Amino acid sequence: MNSKIETRCVHGDTRSSLNDGNRPISFPIYQTASFSHIEPGHNKSGFDYTRESNPTRRRLEEVVSSLEGAAGTVAFTSGMAAASAVFELFSPGDRIVCSEDLYGGVVRLHNLVSRKNGLVFDYVDTTDPRNTANAITHDTKAIYIETPSNPTMRVTDIKKCAQLARENGLLLIVDNTFLSPYFQNPLSLGADIVIHSGSKFLSGHNDTISGFVCVKDEELSSRIHLLSKTTGAALSPFDSWLVMRGIKTLAVRMERQQENAKKLAEWLETHPKVTKVIYPGLKDHPGYETNAAQARGTGSMISFYVIDKETARRVLEKVRLVIFAESLGGTESLITYPLIQTHADVPDDMKQRLGINETLLRISVGLENAEDIIADLAQALED
Ligand SMILES: *Cc1c(COP(=O)(O)O)cnc(C)c1O
């Protein structure tokens, strides 16, 4: 992996050897369900059936592997399908220590599906490695973290988790959606598995749902491939192509969105109706140092508290440029109300402990002009 990440966003590690000899610049969409065989036991291309593998999806997987420094990547129909496949690696009775501040859909997956399958989750504040260490029992099989977390932007030390995982024979799983491989590579810090919602920064245009599992070795790679083939949530050729196209501009998008986010975070801090701004790029963020040590940037997700719930509701109703919608990481700035949207299914006591309340708003800063974004929030915050 000699070339720099901006180059790998465009080309992957290598020019593709997968396409058909017509030398296209844009990798073709292999819109086919199946591939012909020449004779029993011999199919020239190595592709059989698109649920199992497809050249367009494989090309995308190669590009994402190259960005994450992974031995293998599997592309799924959504981030949740990717996370679901990862939890299939475990057996009844296995315990997993998790960040308590997780994407709400993952908490719902635990409660609705994984528990029924006998998995047990121990939620702790993983920003302090002592909490993680104390939660490990002899049934623990993995540590699962998000950093920065969603929506309260807590930063967990990936290397310290990796050390705990190594000492106790556990898998370290990191959801890297918020910073994307452009800013953070957990596998290089000792993680075993990285999960992405590709619906966010990777595709980047608020137009595609997708997910990825990136792994550090061949053994895990074939296990995840087999799970994908078996459970059947592999990304379609067309959506694979869309995500691949999105990734070509990942570097420039991440840089500009971060620049916009820094301006917005600084402005929000000065606003009388904003009581607290949570952004890992602000020096007073408790995870500032840890994030700076393990990531190359601070991203473009900001959470903030306003003085009361009326103000929060007013902002959501009055924004004109910024869009009141779920999701993040795309070209359009989106504002979210975590309490009733992304984190609606998180149990109430957990929401309270994490500070997910009526005055918390989350914004994904897009590619618009920063002054326009600020002006829109300024008018929305007015009485
Ligand atoms: C969106 C998201 C997911 C789920 O991904 P989908 O593509 O929506 O299924 C998981 N983790 C994080 C951090 C997310 O933001």
Q: Tell me the strand percentage band.
A: 15-25%
Structural class determined from secondary elements: alpha/beta
- End-to-end Cα distance: 54 Å
Radius of gyration: 21 Å
Q: Which residue ranges are poorly predicted, with pLDDT under 50 across at least 5 consecutive positions? A: none
Bound molecules: pyridoxal-5'-phosphate
Give the % helix.
25-40%
The dominant shape is globular
How would you characterize the overall build of this protein?
It is a single chain. With 383 residues, this protein is α/β, with parallel strands linked by helices. Helices cover 38% and strands 15% of the residues. The strands form two sheets. A seven-stranded mixed β-sheet has the order 1-7-6-5-4-2-3, sandwiched between helices. Pyridoxal-5'-phosphate (PLP) binds at residues 78-80, 103, 105-106, 146, 150, 175, 177-178, 197, 199-200, 209, 211.
Keyword list:
383 residues, alpha/beta, five-stranded mixed β-sheet, 12 strands, 38% helix, globular, binds pyridoxal-5'-phosphate
Short description:
The chain has 383 residues and is of the alpha/beta class. The protein has helices at residues 5-11, 55-68, 79-87, 104-114, 129-135, 158-168, 180-183, 218-231, 237-248, 250-270, 288-294, 309-318, 348-354, 370-381; strands at residues 72-76, 95-99, 120-124, 140-146, 171-175, 193-197, 211-215, 274-278, 301-306, 323-324, 334-336, 360-364.
